[in-house]
Amino acid sequence: MSLIKLVEPAEATGKVAEIYQNMINAMGFVPNAFKLFSPSEHLLGQQVGNLNYFMRHNRLGGKLLSFIRLLVSEEVQCSYCIGMNTQILFQYGVLPEMVAEIRLDPTKVPLEDNEKALLMFVLKVVKNSNSTVQEDIDKLHDLGWTDAEILEGTYHGASTIATDMIFNAFKVDIDG
After folding, report:
1. Closest Cα partner for 69 from 97, 19, 103?
2. Which domains are assigned to the chain?
3. C-alpha triplet 173, 166, 8: angle, nearest 5°
4. Cα–Cα dist 112/54, whole Å
5. Residue 151, CB half-sphere, CA atoms under 13 Å: how many?
6. Is residue 135 exposed (0-12), middle (13-18) or buried (19+ Cβ within 10 Å)?
7. Burial classification of residue 2, based on how many CB atoms lie within 10 Å of its CB (0-12 exposed, 13-18 middle, 19 or more buried)
8. Neighbours of 66 (CB within 10 A)
9. Taking the alpha carbons of 55, 27, 73, 8 in that order, is the dihedral positive or negative?
10. Residue range 18-59, pLDDT digits in tens
């Protein structure tokens, strides 16, 4: 049970009710990951906006983004995000034993070389943001990534860490 009062779908009004209805229409329910932001229409709107942006990204695919979220969530041990992204990866054909192995050794991730390099860069950033050097960026450029894509992938990982911390702090329940 969350440490703060979350707005349930039956209680939602205004922008929260509108966002909830869109989620119910698309997914059949409102995930607790979004209910957690419901006390603030602004933050809920930002979370939904970010989700919509990244779901439609033309280069940062769903599998890559799920691996980013899964592996950065290891840093703060967010069981909600680890579980949710594990389930998403199953939909991409990543088997449970593969996920367990990848959580221990991210270099075994089944991604294209350019995606794997971006993932490794994001993991480097969340482990020690002061450790990056120009050669890291040059390598990503050589693999075809633009500055915008590098920034957006890194933002996705860093914002996942922040969200994970909020989930842990307020004890968001795993959907079930």
Report:
1. 103
2. 9-55 (no CATH), 62-170 (1.20.1290.10)
3. 45
4. 19
5. 3
6. exposed
7. middle
8. 20
9. positive
10. 999 999 999 899 999 999 999 999 999 999 999 999 999 999
